[in-house]
Amino acid sequence: MPARFEARIETTVDRLFLEHEETLAASRELIPILARAGEQLARTLRLGHKILICGNGGSAADAQHFAAELLNRFERERDPLPALALTTDSSTLTSIANDYAYEQVFAKQVQALGQAEDALIAISTSGCSSNVNAAVKVAQARGLMVVALTGRDGGLLAGMLHPSDFELRVPASSTARIQEIHILLLHALCAVIDTPTPGS
């Protein structure tokens, strides 16, 4: 490989690291609301309710990742916790998309599975994913708390949230940088959920 080409590749990779570091530093402003959201999710689980999670593409993978951390374990031994990624059942997803509309693939699952005082984690880097936003609308109507992971300007999703909901908006425009921080936010939520409450 020519040295000039290799140097250009290293410069490109270095730029990605720098962008990540800048986004990470800017995202520290989310820590207070992140802690409060985590505490509310922990309370949801302590009261015997469940967490539903949805998103598209990389955010669908994040939804599955978060559900696995709760259903199995994160960093300490504990009982399994009820969490369900709405992104994994191909028969359900394709039947809803085929018979109704792709916009409804998460909303109909929330309508069927979501109960008052459950929680929905809605992941959308743009805040403009119509199927995620449709799920949020149904969740709010059914009395679920919503934790939205967004980026950019929060999109349409930001304007849909109720005062009792939470928005964790990554201050970045790059989808890749937003997704990188979303994983950190989800791991932080897991850590808060796993933190023993006083007297427990």
Low-confidence spans: pLDDT under 50, at least 5 residues? none
Strand coverage percent: 5-15%
The N- and C-terminal alpha carbons lie at a distance of 59 Å
What is the helix tally? 8
Q: What is the level-2 CATH architecture name?
A: 3-Layer(aba) Sandwich
Strand line-up across the major sheet: 2-1-3-4-5
The total number of structural domains is 1
SSE pattern, N- to C-terminal: HHEHEHHEHEHEH
Q: Summarize the biggest pleated sheet.
A: 5 strands, parallel
Q: Would you give the CATH topology?
A: Rossmann fold
CATH class category: Alpha Beta
Task: Describe what you observe in this structure.
This protein is of the alpha/beta class and 200 residues long. It is built from eight helices and five strands. It has one domain: 3-Layer(aba) Sandwich (Rossmann fold). Helix content is 55%, strand content 12%. The longest helix is centred in the first third of the chain and has 25 residues.
Q: How are the elements arranged and paired?
A:
Blueprint: H1 3-27, H2 31-46, E1 51-54, H3 58-71, E2 83-85, H4 90-99, H5 107-113, E3 119-123, H6 130-141, E4 145-151, H7 155-160, E5 166-170, H8 175-194
Parallel strand pairs: 1-2, 1-3, 3-4, 4-5
Task: Write a brief structural summary.
The chain has 200 residues and is an alpha/beta fold. 55% of the residues lie in helices and 12% in strands.
List keywords for this structure.
200 residues; alpha/beta; Rossmann fold; 8 helices; 5 strands; 55% helix; globular
